[in-house]
């Protein structure tokens, strides 16, 4: 059986920086293409780099297995396996969720998700018997960090 994954993006400022740089690579490739009237190896290589970073940016997801929440991130050192019993609270906002756990470096982490993905993730979390966390609907939760 195929494992269910729930895609997410990081909090707003990090997502904006990442995707701006990624699309900057696309525009550089298009500029290089316009410089020549025939296919140009350099512009195709830069376009390939853009597709690589696009696939890498879409490769952030959650997976629930063996009483653990696997947070698959861009960099392998940022990937985490969090036991479901260590999750203290899940706040659900209109466009994001915030997970509080002692296993996160800052204590909480914010994840931007689509509405469909978010609902499926929350339903899947509610079905886990080892989850003791409170799931709170918070319509005031925003997609940026609060300082």
Summary keywords:
147 residues, alpha+beta, 35% helix, four-stranded antiparallel beta sheet
Report on this model:
The mean pLDDT is 87. Helix 1 packs antiparallel against helix 2 (41-57). The chain is α+β, with helices and mostly antiparallel strands and 147 residues long. A hairpin with a 7-residue loop joins strand 3 (68-72) and strand 4 (80-83). It has a 4-stranded antiparallel sheet, covered by helices on one side. Strands 7-6-5-8 form a 4-stranded mixed sheet, covered by helices on one side. It has 3 helices and 8 strands. Helix content is 35%, strand content 26%.
* SSE order, one letter for each helix or strand: EHHEEEEEEHE
Q: Radius of gyration over alpha carbons? A: 19 Å
Task: Determine the structural class based on helices, strands and strand pairing.
Answer: alpha+beta
Unreliable spans are none
Approximate shape:
elongated
Helix content: 25-40%
According to DSSP, the number of beta strands is 8
Can you summarize this structure?
This protein is of the alpha+beta class. The protein has helices at residues 12-34, 41-57, 115-126; strands at residues 5-7, 61-65, 68-72, 80-83, 87-92, 96-101, 108-112, 134-137. The strands form two sheets. A four-stranded antiparallel beta sheet has the order 1-2-3-4, with helices on one face. The protein has a four-stranded mixed beta sheet with strand order 7-6-5-8, with helices on one face.
